[in-house]
Amino acid sequence: MDRRVYPAYPLDMTTREALGHIAAALPSLIKLLYRLIRDPQVPLAVKIWIGGTALYVISPLNFSPSRDSILPFRVLRYLDDIVLILLTLQKTFSKTPFEILQKHWDYSMPIDQWNDVVFKVYSDLKNAV
Q: Which of 42, 65, 97, 123 is positioned for an S-S bond with 69, CB 3.0–4.6 A?
């Protein structure tokens, strides 16, 4: 197995470029998460993280300021969702065996590089808050 133990952080890309990579791979990422939920080899904790995050994101309840608030507060309404999604992805990548992730991944960027991109965005957002 040729897997790195630690992420290659900081990457040679900005947070904006990393978010662009994440946005481009959203369909592949959704397929990966769906396949992981259905795979019996994936740990139950990972399935709970994925399912709980999906329920939170689609939930109509939001604990942020109202829609009538000024622009910075409207942006903050989605920041908690983004941080939770990135945290779930980081947990998924760290708790799921690498072979299973690689088997279900169908994006052009290798899964270990993708993990580094997610870690970079998560770390940058976490440090900004």
A: 65
